[in-house]
Design a protein that fits this description.
The complex is a heterodimer. By secondary structure, chain A is an alpha+beta fold. In chain A, about 20% of the residues lie in helices and about 45% in strands. Chain B contains eight helices and no strands. Chain B has helices at about 5-10, 15-35, 40-55, 65-95, 115-125, 130-140, 145-155, 160-180. The chains are: A alpha+beta, B mainly alpha. The interface between A and B is large, with 44 and 61 residues.
């Protein structure tokens, strides 16, 4: 019985290898992911994702907007994410950082100035894993964790 | 090299060690995402997000032995979040839910399966319960994952993998028989 099962599973595995293999691009992207390592930057950890909170707890005003909040010592980055026709727009509120916000997504990089009140806006981004880098007031480079938008 | 050594080398900046980790676990991650019936594009996104998070955590993996569990748990979380997001977006844009979740599911390419019996197996797979599809798709990954990895990946008790596998394969056999094809038990060519 078990041998039969093993045999059937082996057959299924061969079929999966033929019909649904890991695409080359997925393998190459996974290898290239290694280049995103930043040992000299500080990671801002995800402290809140409105998608992971029970309904009604945080997502008050607008259910379409996803809210992500990241924190590192002295710096916080809050992202409001909206989707429209397959593109992503990002509105960020930063505290403890100055200058520009660098948004990284799928090998692309977009830069936006942070205004006096701490806001920055980037629109028309592709969907995919995204992170944001800012420079703290004391010069430290802070990068948020990756989030799939 | 074992996983612990590969992780240590990768943390030290060795791209080759990283590639070896990708070679070892990418198939598992892909199979989990596809088992959740994500489209190829969505599966690619969740798998990539998982690898990026591992890069981010290279120095913080506390128990290297448990890397497969960490990867499996991470990708499963990404899958479930993406499914929830898709549902919510469909709800908000249409007021009601469209058809099945989250996508039509992987349209496994029958044309690539030369043998009619293989094609029949694929068709039958799609008729199994979601839980069976998920488990079998992961068990079909290349290289084949250990039960402990499967358990972590699907959040199932290790002890339940064997019995569930047996039950799901049994159902699959029944379905293929109903398909009025020759049995898959090797009565034809035994290969």
């Amino acid at each position: 019985m078990n041998d039969d099962d093993d045999e059937l599973l082996a057959r299924l595995r061969r079929a999966a290898d033929a019909a649904d293999p890991v695409p080359d691009l997925v393998r190459l992207s996974a290898q290239a992911a290694f280049a995103t390592r930043r040992i000299d930057e500080e990671l801002a950890d995800l402290v809140l994702d409105s998608e992971l909170v029970a309904p009604g707890q945080v997502r008050a005003a607008d259910d379409d907007v996803r809210l992500l909040s990241f924190e590192a010592p002295g710096v916080s980055v809050e992202l409001q994410i909206e989707h429209a026709s397959g593109r992503v727009s990002l509105r960020g509120l930063v505290s403890g950082a100055v200058g520009e916000a660098v948004v990284e997504i799928a090998g692309e990089r977009r830069t936006a100035p942070i205004d006096d009140e701490g806001w920055f806006v980037v629109a028309g981004l592709p969907r995919g894993a995204t992170r944001v880098r800012v420079t703290a007031e004391d010069g430290r480079e802070i990068t948020t964790g990756w989030a799939l938008l | 090299m074992d996983t612990t050594a590969l992780l240590a080398s990768a943390a030290g900046g060795d791209q080759g060690a990283w590639n070896a980790l990708v070679e070892r676990y990418n198939g598992l991650l892909w199979s989990i995402a596809r088992g959740y019936r994500l489209s190829a594009a969505d599966a690619a996104d969740v798998v990539q997000a998982t690898w990026l998070k591992l890069v981010e955590h290279l120095d913080r993996i506390e128990d290297p032995e448990r890397l497969p569990s960490w990867l499996g748990t991470t990708v499963r979380r990404e899958c479930l979040q993406l499914i929830r997001r898709t549902v919510r977006q469909r709800l908000t844009s249409n007021g009601e839910l469209l058809e099945s979740l989250p996508d039509p599911g992987p349209t496994l390419d029958h044309a690539l399966l030369v043998e009619e019996r293989d094609a029949a197996l694929w068709r039958a797979l799609a008729e199994l319960s979601e839980a069976c599809q998920r488990l079998l798709r992961v068990l079909m990954a290349s290289p084949p994952p250990a039960y402990a990895e499967v358990a972590a990946a699907l959040d199932m008790p290790v002890g339940s993998i064997g019995p569930t596998r047996q039950r799901c394969l049994g159902r699959l056999r029944d379905l293929v028989r109903n398909d009025e094809l020759l049995g898959v038990d090797g009565t034809e060519d035994g290969s």
